[in-house]
Amino acid sequence: QLSGKWFLVSMASHCSYLAEHSHQLEATTMTVTVLDGQSLAISTFRKLDRMCWEIRQHYLPAQAPGRFLLKGEGDCSKVDVVVGEADASSFVILYYQKGRSISVKLYGRSSLVSDAVMDKFEQRVRAVGLSEDVTYRFPTYGFCDSADEFHILDGEL
Q: CB within 8 A of 41, min separation 6: which ones?
């Protein structure tokens, strides 16, 4: 059961923005609400220029359990989201694939996870051809709990 609050612990990706701004990573949380028993409402909270922002997205169920589709504008901007491994009480590893590009994210129920969970994440990262030099740890402090109405980005375009 993915419902509830999750803390972004680590992410592996070839994203050039991450590489260029890795020194500015902000503590990030995600709140998951299961809608109609299948699709997920995702609210991500993070700081940008010292202001708390909320980014709202809707993950639609895909062909198989644990697979979702995140749609943007146009066909080219769809992202496949796959739950790689999860223990609802402590962690979830998510894969995000857009075209040929893949990213792996580790979320924890707290901002710190066990060494065993980190090991699992690192194994998953290597298995998709990513490496330590494109793996980023996120801060464990300075989280946002909310954003005012002027700082909400709605992913429903």
A: 32, 33, 34, 35, 56, 57, 58
Q: What is the DSSP letter of 77?
A: G
CATH 2.40.160.20 for domain 4-143: no
Domain ranges of the chain: 4-143
Summarize pLDDT for 64-121 with one digit per residue, the tens: 889 999 987 666 678 999 999 999 999 999 999 998 899 999 999 999 999 999 999 9
How open is the CA angle 103-51-39, to the nearest 5 degrees?
45
* Residue 150 identity (one-letter amino acid): F
DSSP state of 3: -
Nearest to 156 by CA among 72, 76, 49, 43: 72
Contact (Cβ atoms closer than 8 angstroms) between residue 145 and residue 31: no
Q: How many other CB atoms are there within 10 angstroms of residue 151's CB atom? A: 16
